[in-house]
Amino acid sequence: MSGLHRTGRMPSALRLSVRFRWAFYAAFSALFVTGVVWIITNEQRDSPNGEFWQAVSANLLMIHGGAAMITLVVVGALIPTHIVRAWASRRNRLTGPVMVTLNILLIATAFGLYYAGSDALRGWISDTHIAVGLIFPVLLFIHVLTGRRTR
């Protein structure tokens, strides 16, 4: 019975371990929170306390970037342990590719924000990154629910 869950069922090969799940949720939560708070503080840069908000905004971007690096490791670990296995077992074939696409968009737009030289292109990249980042938690929740239903 050592391989059984508390429910008496065998664990799913696609279900992430508790530690990995918490690492995943912690990394993405740090990204989401720092991103949302950055949006708020960045809007305050032209206020009377603009210098203060500029400093807070810069610090948030550093934390956001560090969390992004950790998240890249976590997402990379998902490829062989979760994504490839789920695709092979024909599970979550709608929300899985959506999650992969969103992650690719977030990574590509983050790269663009860091390296884009054109101010016109940078605005579009920023808007895309923010929009995808804001919708990500909702779609992740749907992905998890869909996966649990198909177990």
Describe this structure in words.
With 151 residues, this protein is mostly helical. It has one domain (18-149). The chain contains four helices and no strands. It has helices at residues 18-42, 50-88, 95-115, 119-149. Helix 1 (18-42) runs antiparallel to helix 2. The protein is elongated.
Short overview:
With 151 residues, the protein is mainly alpha-helical. 77% of the residues lie in helices and 0% in strands. α3 runs antiparallel to α4.
List the helices and strands and how they pair.
Blueprint (H helix, E strand, L loop, with lengths): L17 H25 L7 H39 L6 H21 L3 H31 L2
Q: Which tags fit this structure?
A:
single chain, 151 residues, mainly alpha, 4 helices
The low-confidence parts are 1-5
State the secondary-structure class.
mainly alpha
Radius of gyration: 18 Å
* Individual helix count: 4
Helix/strand order: HHHH
